Amino acid sequence: MGKKLQAPRGTYDVLPDDAVRRDHVEATARRILGAAGYRRIETPTFEATELFARGVGASTDIVQKEMYTFEDGGGRSVTLRPEGTAPVARAYLEHGMQKLPQPVKLWYLSSFYRYERAQAGRYRQFWQVGAEAIGSADPAVDAESILLLAELLESLGVRDVRLRLGSLGTPKTRAAYRELLQRYLRDHEDQLSEEVRARIDLNPLRAFDADHPGTKAVMEGAPRLLDHLSAEDLDHFAEVRALLDGADLAYEVDKTLVRGLDYYARTLFEFTSDALGAQSGVGGGGRYDGLIEQIGGPSTPGIGWAAGIERILLAAGEEPVPAPLLDLYVAYAAPEGRATGFELCWEARRAGLSAQFELAGRSLKGQLKQADRSGARFVAIVGPDGATLKDMETGEQDELEPGRVIPVVLKKGKTLA
């Protein structure tokens, strides 16, 4: 016997019991986002590597360290998607969605791939639910986007949620601030970690995320981008905050908030859960008004977010999810009833009932136990001379022809509903 194979490190199997909770996340997202006018989109699992190098940013950890990139049979460089916004922006541009009424509102629930250290709730293959609103610079779009993620997390029972809110200003504002921050970091270079020193030219804002004690001490006194925004940037941020205040959504303005993607501008937000400990991020996003231009399109505003399915489920704890209803379990009392029972099961499904048929060759006693384990509302026991329909809640039994089973179940089901 060979060595037992296991799933690759950083991946996991979604087992049936887990799938029920994930289906609940998907259904909740569809309900909340659909009610706000968002329509579902799914992009390919792999994209041209250039999309992420140009859109996400060549200086980011994602592009430098975490992408699964390979050459396909035609010699083209392709990458398993590490995030969802750049592919959605590419699809918006490629399919001419700028011709539609703006903003175009899209949502997705997809798998993504990053080579990073596997830990609780963080995997190399992971799933995210995300939403993008492309084509409007109105601060109300920002506020709506944030409120939708807040509603989703609340509806899914995510515990101890906090919202951090910030602004990165426009690229022009950020460029001036970036030079100011770079000068500050160089003045304190001897106290910084090697990793942060290496990033001063490429991505100095990520110094705010450092865990290194010396770097953290230096960043306590670093200039804050929020203190260097233009009047226009400040007005935009103030309107977003006013709309969130009007919706009674609590938040904390965080002057150190940054995210690991280069395309963000102006509004930035992150939802955390204290139930997750140190790695507390559940979801977040922001405005990306320059992204589509970076990938070859016209200047187009946009905002979006993504939330990790694994993080949501961890932070929600063991929230009870209703088990799928089973209307009818079809058993047979003798081999002569097997063919009739099989046909009855299929007819029940065609009639719109959920139905299962005995497939393991159990004794009649074992079949009834399995029907009970399955949560069946009714059990039809088919024999050579007819059928017995048992109501599993009341224990009531009816002797009838197999052809009468489905009408009776349908009628009793309506009465109970």
UniProtKB/TrEMBL annotation:
One annotated Gene Ontology cellular component of this protein: cytoplasm
GO biological process, alphabetically ordered: histidyl-tRNA aminoacylation
One Pfam family matching this protein: HGTP_anticodon
Top-level taxonomic group: Bacteria
EC number: 6.1.1.21
Family affiliation: Belongs to the class-II aminoacyl-tRNA synthetase family.
EC category: ligase
GO MF annotations in UniProt: ATP binding; histidine-tRNA ligase activity
Gene3D superfamilies on file: Anticodon-binding domain (3.40.50.800), Bira Bifunctional Protein, Domain 2 (3.30.930.10)
UniProt KW Cytoplasm keyword: yes
Name the UniProt record assigns to this protein: Histidine--tRNA ligase
Binding, L-histidine: E83, G84, T85, R114, Q128, E132, R259, Y263, Y264
Assembly and oligomerization: Homodimer.
NCBIfam families reported for this sequence: hisS
Keywords: Aminoacyl-tRNA synthetase, ATP-binding, Cytoplasm, Ligase, Nucleotide-binding, Protein biosynthesis
Catalysed reaction, written as an equation: tRNA(His) + L-histidine + ATP = L-histidyl-tRNA(His) + AMP + diphosphate + H(+)
Keyword Cytoplasm on entry: yes
Residues in Aminoacyl-transfer RNA synthetases class-II family profile domain copies: 1-324
InterPro entries noted in UniProt: aa-tRNA-synth_II, aa-tRNA-synth_II/BPL/LPL, Anticodon-bd, Anticodon-bd_dom_sf, His-tRNA-ligase, HisRS-like_core, HisRS/HisZ
